[in-house]
């Protein structure tokens, strides 16, 4: 499993630019918002956490279609299905490697992009924390879409269409927790705990559903 993790980590970084493409896309989305809404610093500060979360969500969707594509192309997907190690565990490790290579750099870059949105230190810290906690759920959800579309020649758009509606609860509670940290009357802990619960829930459901989809695709 350790060898699989580092193998997938290298493949995720090399394929299509890996983390660099995601961070650049993330930067592009956040950077163009001030040009659209104008130079109102108070407005940028108010909508900043939501924009950063939306940018991170869209950037995280970029490479999901490649989660199982390399194994499909070189035939190692059949070996994954026949090996003694449970397929669910293999999918979980691949998801963790993919998150480390593509989504973790987005979390690290979020404080810099928060400055573009005129966010204060509390908002930036809360956004980074909620992204760190919630972004793995996006990867686990995306694994299901990637497994469903792995046999399709151009499944990237289909993966995004399948995954995006399922990630809405993660986006809602991620943004809610961030705003709760900034606004004093709103409690920060309840939405953060719900966000953690969503990540743990999809950490169980996502790999299991992806493994089932991979077996059905092979059949």
From TrEMBL:
The keyword Amino-acid biosynthesis does not apply. Its main location: membrane. Keywords: Cell inner membrane, Cell membrane, Cytochrome c-type biogenesis, Membrane, Transmembrane, Transmembrane helix, Transport. One of its GO terms (biological process) is cytochrome complex assembly. It is a multi-pass membrane protein. InterPro entries: Cyt_c_biogenesis_CcmB, Cyt_c_CcmB_bac. It holds the Pfam family CcmB. It comes from the Bacteria. The chain crosses the membrane at residues 12-37, 43-64, 85-108, 128-150, 157-182, 188-214. It is found in: Cell inner membrane. GO terms for cellular component: plasma membrane. Required for the export of heme to the periplasm for the biogenesis of c-type cytochromes. PANTHER family: CYTOCHROME C BIOGENESIS B-RELATED, HEME EXPORTER PROTEIN B. Belongs to the CcmB/CycW/HelB family. This is Heme exporter protein B. It comes from Rhizobium leguminosarum.
């Amino acid at each position: 499993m350790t060898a699989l993790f580092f193998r997938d980590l290298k493949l995720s970084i090399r394929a299509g630019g890996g983390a660099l493409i995601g961070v650049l896309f993330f930067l592009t989305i956040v950077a163009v918002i001030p040009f659209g809404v104008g130079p109102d610093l108070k407005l940028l500060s108010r909508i900043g956490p939501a924009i950063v979360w939306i940018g991170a969500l869209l950037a995280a969707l970029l490479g999901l279609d490649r989660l199982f594509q390399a194994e499909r192309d070189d035939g190692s997907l059949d070996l994954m299905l026949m090996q003694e190690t449970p397929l669910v565990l293999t999918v979980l490790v691949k998801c963790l490697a993919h998150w480390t290579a593509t989504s973790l750099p987005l979390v690290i870059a979020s404080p810099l992009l928060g400055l573009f949105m005129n966010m204060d230190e509390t908002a930036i810290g809360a956004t980074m924390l909620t992204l760190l906690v919630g972004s793995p759920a996006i990867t686990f959800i995306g694994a299901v879409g990637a497994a469903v579309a792995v046999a399709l020649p151009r499944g990237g758009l289909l993966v995004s269409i399948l995954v995006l509606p399922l990630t809405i609860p993660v986006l809602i509670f991620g943004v809610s927790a961030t705003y709760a940290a900034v606004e004093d009357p709103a409690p920060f802990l309840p939405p953060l705990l719900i966000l953690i619960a969503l990540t743990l829930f999809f950490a169980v459901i996502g790999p299991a559903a992806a493994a089932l989809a991979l077996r059905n695709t092979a059949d």
